[in-house]
Specification:
Elements lengths: L3 E6 L4 H10 L4 E7 L3 H11 L3 E2 L2 H6 L5 E4 L6 H10 L3 E5 L6 H14 L3 E4 L6 H11 L6 E9 L21 H17 L3 E9 L4 E3 L5 E3 L5 E8 L4 E7 L8 E8 L3 E5 L5 E6 L3 E6 L23 H14 L11 E2 H20 L3 E2 L4
Parallel strand pairs: 1-2, 1-4, 2-3, 4-5, 5-6, 7-12
Antiparallel strand pairs: 6-17, 7-13, 8-11, 8-18, 9-10, 11-12, 13-14, 14-15, 15-16
Bound molecules: nicotinamide-adenine-dinucleotide.
């Protein structure tokens, strides 16, 4: 088996979860870790017994590294991605791809020109239950899709005193680009088509936030968004995205209403679907290799009731990425950099729609 030497750049929240996932992927060998924070760098380098590199340029310039995992804050994605692609490295980047649709498009074009494999970490689409929903919807088993609804709700920005440096340098959007892109990726992956038009109503609940030392920070990006949409074939949809929803931890929900039955998935109960039947009610569908669609099976990593959750979806995503490296041009279930462009085009259309109080077309590839 060919082993690919991976380096993870950025060891804050998500980087160590990439490391955990990499340890479960047989084709991956962790070759180096990188972070500007000496404590995080030492911790992970020592526990893994791999080189600690403080400067990300040195990781990119190392010819022995095959794959770069970019787990830096969004404002740093472009510089690292561009350098990695120009060095001919495979790239696995955290979402959102970039701060603007224009720069996301440039990065997707560069990746295609370089002929390497480049993907985005939208791991929700890699849950077995989401794969099953996708298979049933795209095979027409649920019937004609009448509508799509959902939400992605968190609670980190409820109070004016909720402030973090992660709220800065996020471009023209914050909540939509951070978690709205996850919902859009999941919904578009299930439907197999992009979002074509939006009508958005975005809200900044606290125009000024104060940090723990009492310093004021002016906010110019949204806490909450209510979005109506049309998918490419005209199917209507609606999503509410917020970081100001008390009690909601990581509450991503997606519901597809077919005219045979509806299917609903909730991220906080990730190992099952709810199937809604007219005149009957809802039944719970666990991910069972004996009853699921054949294409779902590779994503089922534990028996029913041994709840496959958030880290398992990330492992599925990283596994799928390393499976795809043997032939960088073959189809892969991972989110592509073109998807990353589409998500930023969706975000920009929402911001424009809310400002201008009208439907806006989402820029297509
Ligand atoms: N897929 C998901 O569900 C998910 C979840 C959380 C975060 N993310 C994404 O992951 C990325 C990182 O988010 P996070 O929550 O881990 O952020 P974080 O702030 O916790 O971690 C970022 C790390 O980058 C390091 N860093 C910053 N500048 C650096 C530099 N110039 N050189 C080297 N290291 C540097 C910091 O020291 C820190 O350890 C973001 O794009 C975010 O949107 C994705």
């Amino acid at each position: 088996m060919k082993k690919y030497r991976a380096a993870v750049i950025g060891l804050g929240f998500i980087g160590p979860l990439h490391l955990d996932a990499l340890m479960r992927v047989p084709q991956a060998e962790i070759a180096a870790v990188c972070d500007a924070d000496p404590a995080a760098l030492r911790l992970h380098a020592e526990r893994l017994g791999v080189p600690a590199v403080a400067d990300w340029h040195a990781v990119i310039d190392d010819p022995s590294i095959d794959v770069i995992h970019n787990c830096l804050p969004p404002g740093l994605h472009d510089a690292v991605n561009r350098a990695a692609l120009l060095q001919g490295k495979h790239l696995y980047c955290e979402k959102p791809l970039s701060l603007t649709a224009a720069s996301a498009r440039q990065m997707a074009e560069l990746a295609e020109k370089q002929g390497v494999r480049a993907a985005l970490n939208h791991q929700y689409r890699m849950n077995a239950a989401v794969r099953e929903m996708r298979a049933q919807v795209q095979k027409g088993m649920a019937g004609r899709v009448l509508a799509v609804t959902g939400c992605y709700l968190q609670e980190s920005a409820v109070r004016a005193s909720d402030w973090s440096s992660r709220m800065e340098n996020t471009g023209i959007s914050r909540t939509l680009s951070d978690i709205g892109t996850h919902w859009a990726d999941t919904a578009c992956c299930v439907l197999g088509q992009p979002i074509a038009r939006v009508f958005a109503d975005l809200h900044i609940h606290h125009p000024v936030r104060t940090d723990s030392e009492g310093k004021a920070h002016r906010m110019d990006t949204e806490d909450t968004g209510f979005i109506l949409m049309r998918f490419e074939d005209g199917t209507p949809g609606q999503v509410t995205v917020s970081k100001a929803a008390s009690g909601h931890k990581n509450d991503l929900r997606l519901s597809v209403w077919g005219d045979s039955y509806s299917l609903a998935w909730e991220q906080e109960q990730p190992d099952r679907l709810r199937r809604g039947i007219q005149g009957v009610g809802f039944e719970t569908v666990y991910m069972n290799p004996k009853t699921c669609q054949a294409e779902t099976r590779p994503f089922i990593t534990a028996p029913m009731g041994h709840v496959m959750g958030w880290p398992d979806a990330l492992r599925n995503a990283v596994q799928a990425f390393y499976d795809s490296l043997a032939d960088p041009k073959a189809p892969s279930p991972c989110a592509t950099l073109r998807d990353g462009f589409a998500h930023m085009a969706f975000v920009e259309a929402c911001v424009q729609s809310s400002r201008e109080n009208r439907w806006v077309e989402v820029e297509a590839w």
